[in-house]
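Deliverable D5.2: sample structural annotation.
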Amino acid sequence: MATTRLTPCELETVKLNLFSGADLQPLLEEQQAYWSKYLHWSFNSTKQLVIHNLNMRNLNGVVLTKAGRPIGYSFFIQEGCKALIGDLFLSAAYRDKSTERFLLKTILHWAAEHPGVQRIEGQLLTLSLSLQNESIHGRPLQIFRRLFMMTNGLDYPLKPCPTRSYLQFTPWADHYLDAAAHLIAHTYRNHVDSLINDQYHSYDGARRFLYNTSHHSGCGTFHQPAALVAIYTPSREICGVCLASVVESQVGHVTQLCVAPHVAGQGLGYELLRRSLNAFRESGCEAVGLTVTESNNRATHLYESVGFRTIHRFQAFTWEAHEYLTAPDLHQKTN
């Protein structure tokens, strides 16, 4: 489809809360088709949630219009002093780099100027614009390259990896939430992914992330058969966790894979992943996806070794109003 190049004078930004779900229905339908075609992910539950919040008039964001017709939108959700860019989408007929940049800059400035916001986070899978040297109010965006990987190799079960006798595997259950949150907060300390998602900085944030992943549909429908934990039997502590969801008919997604540093390098990440993929296969899934930070070499090598291949590249970004977050001793982790 040919793209219609627009100049800023042809565009108008309008507050998102002035629109109803019906007003943006055609745009959301197009977005749903895009996610299904290119990411093999059902956007329907997210679409319904966006429509609900539009009708409640409680989303902070903007709609980009041309001659009064919505051609794109973006919104953010405020969590304390953080603004999380929830989405950004442009209709294919107008999806060029200059228009994407215009919409992105608009929502970033809007979020940065919102009362109480000190930090912005975003991971926009449908953004084709390559970000570099971007700044808001003189403060730079920190950019992280991310990969969306998938495997279709579920025809046969993966071979088990011999693991230490002191490791025990058990299905995920809610009573592991607290222990898993401590594991994630400890393992992600000084890790690049803790710069992308500040929920990994603390036990409270990690627990909130785990609860949302296992109880809400933001990252698909939680799939308990493919979720499990590894127990270090001498102390009965969790030393590994793998969480999973279903994002479309016969398509699974690994939402979290984390291994404690003291048992890393012993094949535990592979074994957790193997068991999860086999459970997806037994549930009728034909493909499984996941996302990973490109610089996380240990993780990407593991995923490639079991058949995952990159189907899409995207970017995560953060912005700090004041002192910039740094991680002087980044290490590699399986996720």
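Annotation notes: Residues 97-112 form the longest helix (16 residues). The CA atoms of residues 45 and 217 lie 7 Å apart.
The annotation will be released with the project's public dataset once the embargo ends.
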